[in-house]
Amino acid sequence: MAIAISIHTPPLVLLLATLTLLLPTTFSASSNILLSGGFLTAGRSLQYNGYALAMQKDCNLVLYDAGYEVWSTGTAGMGKKCYLYMQGDGNLVIRNGTGPVWSTGTSIGVGQYALVLKPNRDVVILGGAVWAARTGLAVT
Ligand SMILES: *[C@@H]1O[C@H](CO)[C@@H](O)[C@H](O)[C@H]1NC(C)=O
């Protein structure tokens, strides 16, 4: 995409043009799904409409609805560089760099899992195949 910008273009117009180019990238990065093997670092969140599941810099994992807190892991203050990790064994864990500070305790076996912030505001871990052709390649 080529944009012709004259040298007489006011700085504000240049700024708005730059933001317009950046915004779609920023917004498409937000998702309501965290697949197994995926991280949510401090400051990042899953999003669905007005809902947000935020891994905060204070180490608390908080579910917001239109800015109001509706649920949290109660782990504020347990580390400065905490991250949420959807493990490949089905367990969802908050780690603080030293070790785990919270988990769902759902290690049920190696597989493909997904933490999903659903349209009804529920937060669930989905996974496990109902049926498989058993042609899948081994994952290390
Ligand atoms: C991580 O959490 C553990 C348990 O609460 C705590 O002992 C440890 O100091 C924390 N580590 C950091 C880097 O905050």
From TrEMBL:
Organism: Acorus gramineus
Name used for this protein in its record: Bulb-type lectin domain-containing protein
UniProt keyword annotations, A-Z: Signal
Keyword Signal: yes
Keyword set includes Signal: yes
Database matches in InterPro entries: Bulb-type_lectin_dom (IPR001480), Bulb-type_lectin_dom_sf (IPR036426)
Signal peptide start-end: 1-28
Domain Bulb-type lectin: 31-138
GO biological process, one term: response to other organism
